[in-house]
Amino acid sequence: MALDGLLQQMSFGEIFQTISLCKQSGVLTLTNDQERGQLIFSEGHLLHASVDSLQRFGDTLMQSGLITAEDLEAAVVAQRNGDAHVPFGEVLQNNGIISKEVLQAELKKYLTNVVRTLLHWKTGAFHFEFGSGMKQDMLLGEGLNLPTLLMEATRPSDPWHMGLQTDRIESPDRRREWTFFLSILSELSGPVSAHEILLLVLRYASALLNRSVIFMVKKKYLIGVGQSGLQFSDEEADARIKKMRIPLSEPSFFSEAIRSQASYKGPLAQMDWHQYFIDQIGGDWPSSVFLSPLMDGRNPVALLYGDHVSHAQPSPDTRGLEAFIRVSGMAYTKIMLERKWVGNKEEVL
216, 180, 227: which is closest to 321 by C-alpha? Predict the structure, then answer.
């Protein structure tokens, strides 16, 4: 099973964070026009990483004076001539060239440099192969966890812009949002269904926006499936939303968000299908709206709408919500892949 996508849609930091917090195992490969990077995870911990623009780990050990060129060559030869694949570091340890403690400390520094380099990639493609994939020249025994890496690899800056959230957030409001982000994100690491993922997205949206509606994306229509913040005197809000259909062939901000696969935040233009939607949900015309698609790999499978009716208060910061929607898309994709995998196995049996 695998997951593919573009870094323009989901940053490396968000991918790394999702794998770590959802405790996934597998091999993440990133490519752009100039180079290639690869990272190996086991239950969310980073075990190995490399990128073409950085020298190989063995060369860094040699330049640090921890091993000689002869040690390096001998370890490579021994590794190639071995009956089984033995990690490069294990060969060095077995030959008494370097201690395990020093090796692990140096490898942590190396992995941090690789991640720091990849954090600056803005464009490219990623491919995550679910599974083990443990055969590599060098593996970090206990793995490098997310908090440790964040402390080392990120510098003071806008954490949402970097694609990684840190504790270095000064304002109380940003700290509260970061705490909420971690809390709700941790729920994705447990057994959840596709429907539960959509409910989590709605829950996050309800913490920021006055009203929100989530749609499933079908071939010709958006179909309402849930809401928060809506109230009607003559009908249950969920029942009304589930009757809603918005055609994707007609011009609207809804169809444009699906076509562009990009979020939108701003005023809602006067258009026929916008008027239909506001009539359905009731209330005043919103001062600002938020639209963001949830992606299953490269395909939109759901769309979140949210608005901020009040003209007295500024529109809230939705960067954390956008990051959570992208992470939720990866969790949604994993569930669909697992369902397909189980179905294929049952067909074979």
Answer: 180
167 in any annotated domain: no
| Direct distance between the N- and C-terminal alpha carbons of the chain, in angstroms, rounded to an integer | 19
- Residue 81 half-sphere exposure toward CB, CA atoms < 13 A: 7
Query: What's the one-letter identity of residue 109?
Result: K
Distance between CA 125 and CA 194 in Å, rounded?
A: 25
Classify the C-alpha dihedral 152-156-162-168 as positive or negative: positive
Are both 14 and 135 inside the same structural domain? yes
Q: Output the domain CATH number for residue 303.
A: 3.30.450.40
For residue range 265-281, list pLDDT tens digits in order: 999 999 999 999 999 99
Other beta carbons within 10 Å of 65:
7
Place of tokens 């911990």: 45
| Contact criterion met (CB below 8 Å) for 89 and 140 | no
What the block records as the tokens of 237 is: 């809000």
In order, the DSSP letters of 57-72 are: HHHHHHHTTSS-HHHH
Radius of gyration of the chain from Cα atoms? 24
Task: Specify the amino acid at residue 211.
Answer: R
21 lies in the same domain as 149: yes
Domain count across the chain: 2
Q: Is the Cβ–Cβ distance between 347 and 318 less than 8 Å?
A: no
Higher per-residue pLDDT: 63 or 341: 63
Residue 168 and residue 311 in contact, taking contact as beta carbons nearer than 8 Å: no
For residue 23, the tally of other CB atoms under 10 A from its CB is 13
Q: Are 222 and 254 in contact (CB under 8 A)?
A: yes
Q: Where are the beta strands (DSSP E) in the chain?
A: 2-6, 26-31, 36-42, 45-51, 125-130, 211-217, 221-228, 245-247, 264-266, 288-296, 299-308
Domain residues for 97? 2-162
Q: pLDDT of 195-236, one tens digit each?
A: 999 999 999 999 999 899 999 999 999 999 999 999 999 899
Last residue of a domain, one of 99, 133, 162: 162
pLDDT at 160 over 80: no
Burial class (CB in 10 A: 0-12, 13-18, 19+), 317: middle
d(CA 125, CA 8): 8
